[in-house]
Fold Plasminogen activator inhibitor 1.
Amino acid sequence: MQSLSILLIFTLCGSSLCNLFQEKHTDFGLQVFSEAIQSAPDRNLALSPYGISSVLGMAQLGAYGSTLEMLTSKMGYSLQARGMPKQQKLLQRDLASEDGVEVASGVMVDRKIILEKIFRRSLTKAFQSVPHQIDFSHPEMARQVINSWTSDHTGGMISEFLPSGVLSEQTRLVLLNAIHFHGIWKTPFDPTLTREQLFHRANGSAVSVPMMTTTQKLNYGEFVTEDGVDYDVIEVPYEGESLSMLLVTPFEKDVPLMALIKELSSSRIHQWRKEMRKISKQLAIPRFSMDTEIDLKSTLSKMGLGDIFSQSKADFSRITTEEPLCVSKVLQRVKLEVNEEGTKGSSATAAIIYSRMAVEEITLDRPFYFLIQHKPTGALLFSGQVNQPQEY
């Protein structure tokens, strides 16, 4: 399947998750997801909104001045505010207490860096995470340590998270979040009813896929966007019913999924839940797996968070005052398997923080022009285009 025209939202129900902080936490993650899919409307994409909000929350704990103001404004909350670290702690605790859900936060810090006490204390309060010293002067060894950590905390689903070359001797910290989820459907799909059916992709083509089918009483609702687009929401519960999958899709087959992008918010999800009713439905959904890797730097920059990546503007002096820091990359990998039995999924998220004093490497590993100029007169002696370097 090149395009999966169903939006999947995994949610936890319960009054303990309905306060303002948790809604803002969810909303920010959904905003990142909404921005990311706009640049890839025709291809599969899976993100972990919780993982993104958590890693940037850890970065927020180390931010100061205009960088803190920017993160607080765009995320909708400040983990440096009184009582907020406890809210983050409770959210992580509630998630981790669910059967089939494992959540972990980690901080890998270069052994040469002395962290500010307030940053260390805040990490412990909010994320129950104690920084682990690592030697980034040996980037490949450091990468293996981090990949081993993500493998351990994702049930082995994500064993090669960070690619070779993503770390360097200028790396100072890597902020990490990992989630592993294994949910069994409350009423599993009967494998004998799975049939090959055509799945119509966003580009107009069709492909044959194994379609799982079930008939049961499910929470279902019909809704309309402000623009008048009709769409369906179906809830499929996992065992225990505190976890469920919401399936959201336009009613008309020729309406693009992007028409529903503005519906993605925690308040809208609450409204769906209030208005959905249990109805006997026949549900057919593809059996599928996804493996998504994404660098969220451009997505976050489009959302107005570009300063955290800026060598001249980023201020993370609450992390350390020894040298200025900036975020280099925000990476996420998500693996999902949805079948007749249930859903298995893992995500790993990392914010890689570099020294701003580092010399940024520029590699001309793509075509380039060259100009040889006599500066006093401006005369160009040579100019050229290099598409494929050749030695003589």
The chain has a mean pLDDT of 87. Residues 20-38 form the longest helix (19 residues). The chain has eight helices and 14 strands.
